[in-house]
Amino acid sequence: MSRVQKLFDEVKLADKQAVLLTKPSNIFYISGFTGEGCLLLTKGLQAIITDFRYTEQAERQAPGFSVHMIGNGVSHMDLAYGLMKDEGIGSLLYEDDEFTVRSFEKTKSVMEGIAFESIRNAPEKVREVKDDGEIALIEEACDISCRAFDWLLGELKPGMTEIEARLKLDFKMLELGGDGLAFDTIVAGGENGSLPHAIPGQRKFQLGDMITFDFGAKKGGYCADMTRTVALGQPKDEMRRIYDIVLQAQETCEALLAPGKNCREVDRVARDIIDNAGYKGRFGHGLGHAVGIDIHESPRLSPACDATLVTGHTMTVEPGIYVPGLGGVRIENTCVITADGGRTLVHAPKDLVIL
Ligand SMILES: [Mn+2]
Fold it and tell me: Which domain range does residue 37 map to?
Protein backbone atom coordinates (compact mmCIF):
# COMPACT_ATOMS: atom_id res chain seq x y z
CA MET A 1 0.00 0.00 0.00
CA SER A 2 1.31 3.47 -0.79
CA ARG A 3 2.24 5.71 2.11
CA VAL A 4 -0.41 8.22 1.01
CA GLN A 5 -3.03 5.47 1.22
CA LYS A 6 -1.77 4.37 4.65
CA LEU A 7 -2.20 7.95 5.86
CA PHE A 8 -5.69 8.23 4.36
CA ASP A 9 -6.68 4.98 6.08
CA GLU A 10 -5.28 6.22 9.39
CA VAL A 11 -7.28 9.48 9.27
CA LYS A 12 -10.31 7.88 7.53
CA LEU A 13 -10.21 10.64 4.94
CA ALA A 14 -13.60 11.83 3.72
CA ASP A 15 -14.27 12.69 0.06
CA LYS A 16 -14.35 16.46 0.59
CA GLN A 17 -11.45 16.51 3.02
CA ALA A 18 -7.79 17.42 2.39
CA VAL A 19 -4.56 16.84 4.29
CA LEU A 20 -1.96 19.60 4.57
CA LEU A 21 1.52 18.54 5.69
CA THR A 22 4.03 21.20 6.70
CA LYS A 23 6.46 19.16 8.83
CA PRO A 24 9.62 18.29 6.83
CA SER A 25 9.92 14.73 8.21
CA ASN A 26 6.31 13.92 7.28
CA ILE A 27 6.68 15.52 3.84
CA PHE A 28 9.78 13.40 3.23
CA TYR A 29 8.10 10.20 4.44
CA ILE A 30 5.05 10.63 2.25
CA SER A 31 6.67 12.03 -0.91
CA GLY A 32 10.48 11.74 -0.76
CA PHE A 33 10.78 15.53 -1.17
CA THR A 34 13.46 17.13 1.03
CA GLY A 35 13.12 20.82 0.11
CA GLU A 36 11.04 23.57 1.69
CA GLY A 37 7.33 23.69 1.07
CA CYS A 38 4.18 21.79 1.93
CA LEU A 39 2.15 18.83 0.77
CA LEU A 40 -1.55 18.94 -0.09
CA LEU A 41 -3.29 15.58 -0.39
CA THR A 42 -6.88 14.80 -1.39
CA LYS A 43 -8.46 11.70 -2.88
CA GLY A 44 -7.86 13.21 -6.32
CA LEU A 45 -4.63 15.16 -5.82
CA GLN A 46 -1.07 14.71 -4.57
CA ALA A 47 0.55 18.14 -4.70
CA ILE A 48 3.84 19.64 -3.57
CA ILE A 49 3.69 23.40 -3.13
CA THR A 50 7.14 24.97 -3.17
CA ASP A 51 9.18 27.84 -4.57
CA PHE A 52 11.52 28.27 -7.52
CA ARG A 53 14.55 26.92 -5.61
CA TYR A 54 13.01 23.48 -5.24
CA THR A 55 10.64 22.88 -8.15
CA GLU A 56 13.01 20.76 -10.24
CA GLN A 57 14.21 18.94 -7.12
CA ALA A 58 10.59 18.13 -6.18
CA GLU A 59 9.92 16.72 -9.65
CA ARG A 60 12.99 14.49 -9.37
CA GLN A 61 12.39 13.33 -5.80
CA ALA A 62 8.61 12.84 -5.93
CA PRO A 63 7.61 11.60 -9.40
CA GLY A 64 4.01 10.78 -8.47
CA PHE A 65 3.27 14.31 -7.24
CA SER A 66 2.25 17.44 -9.12
CA VAL A 67 4.55 20.36 -8.33
CA HIS A 68 3.13 23.86 -7.90
CA MET A 69 5.31 26.96 -7.67
CA ILE A 70 4.49 29.98 -5.52
CA GLY A 71 5.43 33.54 -6.55
CA ASN A 72 4.08 36.92 -7.74
CA GLY A 73 2.26 37.53 -4.47
CA VAL A 74 0.76 34.03 -4.39
CA SER A 75 1.69 32.28 -1.13
CA HIS A 76 1.76 28.58 -0.25
CA MET A 77 -1.64 28.91 1.40
CA ASP A 78 -3.13 30.90 -1.51
CA LEU A 79 -2.04 28.13 -3.85
CA ALA A 80 -3.31 25.38 -1.54
CA TYR A 81 -6.68 27.12 -1.21
CA GLY A 82 -7.01 27.38 -4.99
CA LEU A 83 -6.27 23.67 -5.41
CA MET A 84 -8.76 22.82 -2.65
CA LYS A 85 -11.50 24.87 -4.28
CA ASP A 86 -10.89 23.09 -7.59
CA GLU A 87 -11.46 19.80 -5.74
CA GLY A 88 -14.52 21.03 -3.82
CA ILE A 89 -12.76 20.54 -0.47
CA GLY A 90 -14.60 21.75 2.65
CA SER A 91 -12.33 20.67 5.51
CA LEU A 92 -8.61 20.47 6.12
CA LEU A 93 -6.58 18.22 8.39
CA TYR A 94 -3.46 20.11 9.49
CA GLU A 95 -0.52 19.58 11.85
CA ASP A 96 -1.40 21.62 14.90
CA ASP A 97 1.94 20.88 16.57
CA GLU A 98 3.83 22.47 13.66
CA PHE A 99 1.96 25.66 12.77
CA THR A 100 2.84 28.85 14.63
CA VAL A 101 -0.09 30.85 15.99
CA ARG A 102 0.70 33.54 13.41
CA SER A 103 0.77 31.24 10.39
CA PHE A 104 -2.40 29.51 11.53
CA GLU A 105 -4.23 32.86 11.82
CA LYS A 106 -2.95 33.83 8.36
CA THR A 107 -3.99 30.49 6.87
CA LYS A 108 -7.50 30.75 8.32
CA SER A 109 -7.88 34.25 6.88
CA VAL A 110 -6.77 33.03 3.43
CA MET A 111 -8.89 29.85 3.44
CA GLU A 112 -12.35 31.27 3.80
CA GLY A 113 -15.11 28.74 4.45
CA ILE A 114 -12.75 25.84 5.25
CA ALA A 115 -13.19 23.89 8.50
CA PHE A 116 -9.87 23.13 10.22
CA GLU A 117 -9.22 19.95 12.14
CA SER A 118 -6.06 18.62 13.78
CA ILE A 119 -4.50 15.58 12.10
CA ARG A 120 -3.50 14.43 15.62
CA ASN A 121 -0.06 13.17 14.60
CA ALA A 122 -1.55 10.55 12.26
CA PRO A 123 1.53 10.74 9.95
CA GLU A 124 3.83 10.04 12.91
CA LYS A 125 1.57 7.13 13.87
CA VAL A 126 1.90 5.65 10.37
CA ARG A 127 5.68 6.16 10.52
CA GLU A 128 6.02 4.07 13.70
CA VAL A 129 6.11 0.78 11.81
CA LYS A 130 9.12 0.69 9.50
CA ASP A 131 9.24 -1.34 6.29
CA ASP A 132 12.25 -3.43 5.24
CA GLY A 133 13.75 -0.59 3.20
CA GLU A 134 13.59 1.79 6.13
CA ILE A 135 15.11 -0.79 8.50
CA ALA A 136 17.94 -1.40 6.01
CA LEU A 137 18.73 2.34 5.95
CA ILE A 138 18.76 2.57 9.75
CA GLU A 139 21.03 -0.48 9.90
CA GLU A 140 23.34 1.08 7.32
CA ALA A 141 23.44 4.30 9.35
CA CYS A 142 24.25 2.24 12.46
CA ASP A 143 26.96 0.35 10.59
CA ILE A 144 28.63 3.60 9.49
CA SER A 145 28.45 4.84 13.08
CA CYS A 146 30.00 1.62 14.45
CA ARG A 147 32.86 1.66 11.95
CA ALA A 148 33.61 5.32 12.70
CA PHE A 149 33.64 4.60 16.44
CA ASP A 150 35.87 1.56 16.05
CA TRP A 151 38.35 3.78 14.20
CA LEU A 152 38.07 6.52 16.85
CA LEU A 153 39.05 4.11 19.64
CA GLY A 154 42.53 3.90 18.07
CA GLU A 155 42.84 7.69 18.15
CA LEU A 156 41.82 8.46 21.75
CA LYS A 157 44.70 9.59 23.95
CA PRO A 158 45.20 11.43 27.24
CA GLY A 159 45.36 15.17 26.52
CA MET A 160 42.83 15.07 23.67
CA THR A 161 39.81 17.34 24.27
CA GLU A 162 36.17 16.30 23.99
CA ILE A 163 35.79 18.70 21.06
CA GLU A 164 38.75 17.13 19.21
CA ALA A 165 37.31 13.64 19.69
CA ARG A 166 33.90 14.82 18.53
CA LEU A 167 35.35 16.35 15.35
CA LYS A 168 37.22 13.16 14.52
CA LEU A 169 34.13 11.00 15.04
CA ASP A 170 31.84 13.31 13.05
CA PHE A 171 34.31 13.57 10.17
CA LYS A 172 34.75 9.79 10.06
CA MET A 173 30.99 9.16 9.93
CA LEU A 174 30.73 11.50 6.94
CA GLU A 175 33.83 10.02 5.31
CA LEU A 176 32.39 6.51 5.64
CA GLY A 177 29.27 7.49 3.73
CA GLY A 178 26.97 9.18 6.21
CA ASP A 179 24.72 11.75 4.50
CA GLY A 180 24.88 13.79 7.68
CA LEU A 181 24.65 13.45 11.42
CA ALA A 182 21.51 12.34 13.20
CA PHE A 183 22.11 14.84 16.02
CA ASP A 184 24.90 16.77 17.73
CA THR A 185 27.44 14.22 18.97
CA ILE A 186 27.85 13.99 22.73
CA VAL A 187 31.34 13.41 24.17
CA ALA A 188 31.59 13.51 27.95
CA GLY A 189 34.84 12.66 29.74
CA GLY A 190 35.41 11.96 33.44
CA GLU A 191 33.06 13.87 35.74
CA ASN A 192 31.29 15.41 32.69
CA GLY A 193 29.76 11.96 32.16
CA SER A 194 27.18 12.77 34.82
CA LEU A 195 25.53 15.12 32.27
CA PRO A 196 23.31 12.88 30.09
CA HIS A 197 23.36 15.43 27.24
CA ALA A 198 26.80 16.95 27.79
CA ILE A 199 28.09 19.44 25.22
CA PRO A 200 31.66 18.56 24.17
CA GLY A 201 34.09 21.10 25.64
CA GLN A 202 37.76 21.84 26.24
CA ARG A 203 38.22 19.27 28.99
CA LYS A 204 41.20 17.02 28.21
CA PHE A 205 40.97 13.25 28.63
CA GLN A 206 43.00 11.86 31.54
CA LEU A 207 44.12 8.35 32.41
CA GLY A 208 41.39 6.75 34.51
CA ASP A 209 38.54 8.61 32.72
CA MET A 210 35.40 6.89 31.58
CA ILE A 211 34.24 8.68 28.41
CA THR A 212 30.69 8.54 27.02
CA PHE A 213 30.02 8.93 23.28
CA ASP A 214 26.41 9.27 22.06
CA PHE A 215 26.23 9.69 18.29
CA GLY A 216 24.76 8.53 15.01
CA ALA A 217 25.08 8.97 11.27
CA LYS A 218 22.22 9.54 8.85
CA LYS A 219 21.71 7.47 5.72
CA GLY A 220 19.03 7.99 3.10
CA GLY A 221 17.17 10.26 5.51
CA TYR A 222 17.23 7.78 8.41
CA CYS A 223 19.02 8.10 11.76
CA ALA A 224 21.30 5.84 13.78
CA ASP A 225 21.51 6.24 17.54
CA MET A 226 24.13 4.55 19.71
CA THR A 227 26.05 5.21 22.91
CA ARG A 228 29.18 3.63 24.30
CA THR A 229 31.17 4.47 27.42
CA VAL A 230 34.84 3.46 27.31
CA ALA A 231 37.68 3.72 29.82
CA LEU A 232 41.03 5.38 29.19
CA GLY A 233 43.31 3.40 31.47
CA GLN A 234 41.98 1.62 34.55
CA PRO A 235 38.77 3.24 35.83
CA LYS A 236 37.80 3.74 39.46
CA ASP A 237 36.21 0.71 41.14
CA GLU A 238 32.84 2.46 41.49
CA MET A 239 32.76 3.39 37.79
CA ARG A 240 33.51 -0.19 36.84
CA ARG A 241 30.67 -1.34 39.09
CA ILE A 242 28.32 1.24 37.55
CA TYR A 243 29.30 -0.01 34.10
CA ASP A 244 28.35 -3.59 35.02
CA ILE A 245 24.94 -2.48 36.34
CA VAL A 246 24.15 -0.42 33.22
CA LEU A 247 25.28 -3.28 30.98
CA GLN A 248 23.07 -5.72 32.86
CA ALA A 249 20.07 -3.37 32.53
CA GLN A 250 20.78 -2.82 28.83
CA GLU A 251 21.21 -6.49 27.96
CA THR A 252 18.23 -7.62 30.04
CA CYS A 253 15.90 -5.10 28.39
CA GLU A 254 17.24 -5.63 24.87
CA ALA A 255 16.52 -9.35 25.33
CA LEU A 256 12.95 -8.51 26.43
CA LEU A 257 12.07 -6.72 23.18
CA ALA A 258 9.26 -8.49 21.34
CA PRO A 259 5.88 -7.82 19.78
CA GLY A 260 3.22 -7.50 22.48
CA LYS A 261 5.53 -6.05 25.12
CA ASN A 262 4.28 -2.98 26.99
CA CYS A 263 6.67 -0.01 26.70
CA ARG A 264 6.25 1.08 30.31
CA GLU A 265 6.96 -2.43 31.61
CA VAL A 266 10.22 -2.76 29.65
CA ASP A 267 11.32 0.59 31.11
CA ARG A 268 10.36 -0.63 34.58
CA VAL A 269 12.71 -3.61 34.33
CA ALA A 270 15.74 -1.37 33.69
CA ARG A 271 14.69 1.03 36.44
CA ASP A 272 14.32 -1.81 38.95
CA ILE A 273 17.78 -3.21 38.14
CA ILE A 274 19.38 0.22 38.63
CA ASP A 275 17.32 1.15 41.72
CA ASN A 276 18.00 -2.18 43.41
CA ALA A 277 21.75 -1.88 42.74
CA GLY A 278 21.84 1.25 44.89
CA TYR A 279 21.46 3.97 42.25
CA LYS A 280 17.82 4.96 42.74
CA GLY A 281 17.23 8.38 41.21
CA ARG A 282 20.43 8.30 39.15
CA PHE A 283 18.67 7.09 35.95
CA GLY A 284 16.39 10.04 35.31
CA HIS A 285 15.45 9.63 31.65
CA GLY A 286 13.39 7.12 29.72
CA LEU A 287 14.91 3.78 28.70
CA GLY A 288 14.51 4.45 25.00
CA HIS A 289 12.64 5.88 22.05
CA ALA A 290 11.75 5.03 18.50
CA VAL A 291 14.21 6.11 15.79
CA GLY A 292 13.53 6.81 12.12
CA ILE A 293 13.55 9.92 9.96
CA ASP A 294 13.59 11.83 13.25
CA ILE A 295 15.99 10.90 16.01
CA HIS A 296 13.17 10.82 18.58
CA GLU A 297 9.92 9.23 17.45
CA SER A 298 7.04 7.49 19.14
CA PRO A 299 6.61 5.15 20.89
CA ARG A 300 8.94 5.57 23.87
CA LEU A 301 10.21 3.08 26.39
CA SER A 302 9.32 5.25 29.36
CA PRO A 303 7.15 5.30 32.48
CA ALA A 304 4.75 7.61 30.59
CA CYS A 305 4.20 5.38 27.51
CA ASP A 306 1.52 2.71 27.56
CA ALA A 307 2.02 1.62 23.93
CA THR A 308 2.58 -1.98 22.87
CA LEU A 309 5.59 -2.97 20.75
CA VAL A 310 4.85 -4.41 17.31
CA THR A 311 6.99 -5.87 14.53
CA GLY A 312 8.74 -3.07 12.65
CA HIS A 313 9.20 -0.69 15.58
CA THR A 314 12.81 0.53 15.78
CA MET A 315 13.65 1.29 19.40
CA THR A 316 16.69 2.39 21.33
CA VAL A 317 17.53 0.71 24.64
CA GLU A 318 19.73 3.13 26.57
CA PRO A 319 19.88 2.89 30.35
CA GLY A 320 22.39 5.07 32.19
CA ILE A 321 23.64 5.97 35.65
CA TYR A 322 24.78 9.52 36.35
CA VAL A 323 26.60 10.55 39.54
CA PRO A 324 27.55 14.23 39.86
CA GLY A 325 31.22 14.69 40.76
CA LEU A 326 32.07 11.15 39.68
CA GLY A 327 30.83 10.56 36.13
CA GLY A 328 28.36 8.47 34.22
CA VAL A 329 27.80 5.45 32.01
CA ARG A 330 25.25 4.95 29.22
CA ILE A 331 25.07 2.06 26.78
CA GLU A 332 22.66 2.29 23.84
CA ASN A 333 21.71 0.12 20.90
CA THR A 334 19.08 0.83 18.26
CA CYS A 335 17.04 -2.35 17.76
CA VAL A 336 14.22 -3.52 15.51
CA ILE A 337 11.25 -5.50 16.79
CA THR A 338 10.94 -8.70 14.76
CA ALA A 339 8.26 -11.40 14.61
CA ASP A 340 10.06 -13.50 17.22
CA GLY A 341 11.73 -10.86 19.41
CA GLY A 342 14.19 -8.10 18.73
CA ARG A 343 17.41 -7.64 16.78
CA THR A 344 20.06 -5.01 17.36
CA LEU A 345 21.06 -2.90 14.38
CA VAL A 346 24.21 -1.78 16.23
CA HIS A 347 26.95 -4.36 16.07
CA ALA A 348 29.65 -2.73 18.22
CA PRO A 349 30.75 -4.72 21.31
CA LYS A 350 29.24 -3.73 24.66
CA ASP A 351 31.77 -5.20 27.09
CA LEU A 352 33.88 -2.50 28.76
CA VAL A 353 36.67 -1.36 26.47
CA ILE A 354 39.78 -0.24 28.39
CA LEU A 355 42.15 1.70 26.17
MN1 LIG B 1 18.94 7.79 22.00
Answer: 3-126
